[in-house]
Structures are given as structure tokens and as C-alpha cells.
Write a structure and sequence with these properties.
This protein has helices at about 5-15, 70-85, 90-105, 115-130, 170-175, 185-195, 220-230, 250-255, 280-285, 305-320, 320-340, 365-370, 375-385, 405-415, and strands at about 40, 45-50, 55, 110-115, 135-140, 180, 200-205, 235-240, 260-265, 275-280, 345-350, 350-355, 390, 400. It has about 425 residues and is of the alpha/beta class. It has two domains: about 5-55 and about 320-415, Alpha-Beta Complex (Aspartate Aminotransferase, domain 1); about 70-320, Type I PLP-dependent aspartate aminotransferase-like (Major domain) (Aspartate Aminotransferase, domain 2), CATH 3.40.640.10. The chain has a seven-stranded mixed sheet with strand order 4-10-9-8-7-5-6, with helices on both faces. The chain has a four-stranded mixed sheet with strand order 1-2-3-13. It has a three-stranded antiparallel sheet with strand order 11-12-14, with helices on one face. The radius of gyration is 21 Å and the shape is globular.
């Protein structure tokens, strides 16, 4: 059921925007229908241009942990905007947000803010190469780290729908510096490290992948990454753009007790504003310009509006720890109820979850891609028709906010009975 309003707006967009969108997964191509155009959001709801209301389990792909237009965040951004949109200078809010990040992530001794997760990953890996003097990167199949050329190899998320494992326009000479092995395959990882140890600058991983859908690491897998990288002088980079602040005031590294050398953050630390960050050990971060020889810059890095939104969001989370218990309970309850009524697989971690149209456990990218994506697409469309907004593609992660309750999860359970 697609409204004439959405069809008309998409036709207008396609006449002026490449593909009618500014990010491919928004096109609803996987669903075979025009996208929903949103006019505004409030709390846990989206409101479409056609007047429909949607219970939102996408939350702008994760960052809106406090829900849409949270009064505290809106007030902070409004006050900042009145002082000026951007200066291209140092502002004290940068150090304030950095201090909040350090409180949550003890492994981060120094921080550098950027404007997106992709930019943060790109910069972190350049730093890793500069610090180690080596050129190769090891990643894992299905882990998506933004649209960095060297990492569009067996990537998840929206790239999973492409006919090839890498994007057109990426030179083979760039890709040859990247090794990709199956997530949760300890033997494949150890073999790859043994073979390429002298050339590997970094191992980058989503500690709990969210771009092939939520996939949990097998017990001991992340510990193995830490042991092997230390043994061979390789930097371990945790991409916590999605997992950061999604289970506790910290990240997956806090939950699993593993300290990476570098961490990449985004989404939530900007409270909905465009922002990213990378940080880690002081001796590594000191190699960044202006103190070191690894160059990175950005006119809008540390933007006043993003810093204000991030400070408001992280301060709220720091002082409201009980919110995590509530969100995690909603997702845990949803998963338990889902398994009781549906043959499909559901994976969860913290306030994140993914539904797979598969009867077997999903523990890696191959299993995620083996699901019946057409059947799942029909389920997502049925949810939309019932006023429930899920991520509009397979191999994606759904989220709850501090505003969601078990009653909201119950709507998904009711829908699952008809699948």
C-alpha cells in the first residue's frame, strides 16, 4: 500500500537527485515500492508527508537513542545555532564532548572529531598505516565500515544488494591491500594473520556486527583478535559506530572487556547531527597532524551544532543509567516472544535486534545472505502498511529508543503471527 503522495514525491526527487535519494538504502529498492517520505519525527514516531504515523524501529539507523526531537537535545542545538552555525575555529564544546567520550571508553586517551563514520574509519586506517609503516588491512565479511574504497570488499549493509562484493569505481590496486575473512571463523582469521602479519597495519571489526544484521561474536572470538594482533604488532580497531552506547554507557568493548588500540564512533555521539570520531592510545593519536606526520583535517569537524547535540545526548545517558535496563529489557522480551511464535531467527544485543527470514542460526555473513530476502521484504512492507517502520532492507539492524516499551514490541509480535 503506497500512497499517491509518496509516489509523486519520489518522481519529483528522481528528476533532480541521482536515483531519487542521497543514500541507496532509502530508495526502498529491496522492497519493490516507492520510499516513504517523512515530514517530522516525535519520540518513537515518524509522521509521513501523506499524514500517516509510523512506530519507528529504525531511528535514523541508530543514533536517535533518545527518540526523535528530544527536548533536551533540541534545546541544546537551538541555543548553539543562535550563537552561530559554524566557525572553523576551536570551541570549548569539543573538549567537553571528548571528555564524555573518554569517560565511556577508557581505551580512548585522545579523540579526533570528524563529520561522519566513513570519514572516521578512513582517517583511523590512515593513522594505523602511518603508525605501523604497513599497508594492509584485514576486515571481516559482512562488516560495513562506510564507503571507503579499500573496505568495499564483502561489505554488508546496502552494499549487500550489489551484484559484486565491491563497488564499481574501486581500483583493484586499492582492494589488493585489503583481506576479508568470515566473521566468527577463528581458523580463517589466524591463517590470514599468519600469512600477512608483516604487511598488516590493522584489523578492523564491528565487535557486534550490525551491517549484516545483528550477529553476535562467538565466545572467545574477540579475545583471539586481541591476542593475535598484539602478538604480531598489528593495531586492533573496533568500529563502534553502531554498537557505541547501544548496550551501556560505553560500547561493546566495555561489555566484552577488550581494549582495542583505536575505536571509531559515530551516530549517537552526535545526537542525530552529522558527526563521527576516532580515538585511542595517546602514542598512536599523537601521530596526527599538527603534532605528527599523518594528515587529517575537516572544516566542519567539531561543528558547534553537532557538539551541542552530542553533549546533551551523552550527558543524559550518563545520568540516566536505568534507561539501558529498560531498553535492553524491551529487546530481550521481544526476542523471547518472537522465538515462541515464529520460526524465523531473531538476533539481539543491547537495544539492537534483527529479524532474519531463516530457520537456522545466523552467525556470519553467509548465513545472513542465505535468508529468504523476498519473504522478509514482504514482511517489512506488511509492517509499513500497519504503521510500523523497520529498516527497509534485509541485512540491517533495528533499534529501540528510551521511548519504546514492551507494548510497542508486542505490535511486531502480533505481525509475526501472520508471516
Amino acid at each position: 500500500m503506497t500512497s499517491s503522495v509518496n509516489r509523486r514525491l519520489f518522481a519529483t526527487a528522481r528528476a533532480v537527485l541521482a536515483g531519487g535519494v542521497n543514500s541507496p538504502v532509502r530508495s526502498f529498492k529491496a522492497l519493490g515500492r516507492p520510499p516513504v517520505f517523512i515530514a517530522r519525527g516525535s519520540g518513537k514516531y515518524l509522521f509521513g508527508e501523506d499524514g500517516r504515523r509510523y512506530l519507528d524501529f529504525c531511528l535514523s539507523w541508530g543514533p536517535l537513542i533518545l527518540g526523535h526531537a528530544h527536548p533536551t537535545v533540541v534545546a541544546a542545538v537551538t541555543a548553539a545555532a543562535k550563537r552561530g552555525m559554524t566557525f572553523g575555529t576551536c570551541i570549548k564544546a569539543e573538549a567537553e564532548l571528548a571528555s564524555l567520550v573518554q569517560k565511556a571508553f577508557p581505551s580512548i586517551q585522545r579523540v579526533r572529531f570528524v563529520s561522519s563514520g566513513t570519514e572516521a574509519v578512513m582517517s583511523a586506517l590512515r593513522l594505523a598505516r602511518g603508525f605501523t609503516g604497513k599497508s594492509m588491512i584485514l576486515k571481516f565479511d559482512g562488516c560495513y565500515h562506510g564507503h571507503v574504497d579499500a573496505l568495499l570488499v564483502n561489505a554488508g549493509s546496502g552494499v549487500a544488494g550489489l551484484a559484486r562484493s565491491s563497488s564499481a569505481g574501486v581500483p583493484l590496486d586499492v582492494v589488493r591491500h585489503t583481506v576479508s575473512v568470515p566473521f566468527n571463523d577463528a581458523r580463517a582469521f589466524s591463517r590470514a594473520v599468519k600469512r600477512h602479519a608483516r604487511s598488516l597495519a590493522a584489523v578492523i571489526v564491528e565487535p557486534v556486527p550490525g551491517n549484516m544484521g545483528v550477529v553476535l561474536p562467538e565466545p572467545g572470538f574477540l579475545d583471539l583478535l586481541r591476542v593475535e594482533t598484539k602478538r604480531h604488532g598489528i593495531l586492533l580497531v573496533f568500529d563502534e559506530v553502531i554498537t557505541g552506547f547501544r548496550s551501556c554507557f560505553g560500547g561493546a568493548q566495555t561489555v566484552f572487556g577488550i581494549e582495542p588500540d583505536l575505536t571509531v564512533l559515530g551516530k549517537i555521539i552526535g545526537g542525530g547531527m552529522p558527526v563521527g570520531a576516532f580515538g585511542g592510545r595517546k602514542d598512536i593519536m599523537d601521530r596526527l597532524a599538527p603534532e605528527g606526520d599523518v594528515y587529517q583535517a575537516g572544516t566542519l569537524s567539531g561543528n558547534p551544532l553537532a557538539m551541542a547535540a552530542g553533549i546533551a545526548t551523552l550527558t543524559w545517558l550518563e545520568h540516566t543509567p536505568q534507561a539501558y535496563a529498560r531498553m535492553n529489557d524491551v529487546v530481550a522480551w521481544l526476542a523471547d516472544q518472537w522465538r515462541a511464535v515464529s520460526p524465523w531467527t531473531i538476533n539481539r544485543w543491547g537495544s539492537m535486534f534483527s529479524v532474519f527470514a531463516a530457520r537456522e542460526p545466523v552467525t556470519d555473513y553467509a548465513a545472513a545472505r542465505a535468508q529468504d530476502s523476498k519473504v522478509l521484504a514482504r514482511f517489512i512492507c506488511a509492517a509499513l502498511d500497519k504503521g510500523i517502520y523497520l529498516p527497509p532492507a534485509p541485512c540491517e539492524t533495528a533499534f529501540v529508543s528510551t521511548r519504546h516499551t514492551r507494548a510497542d514490541a508486542r505490535q511486531l509480535i502480533a505481525l509475526s503471527r501472520s508471516q
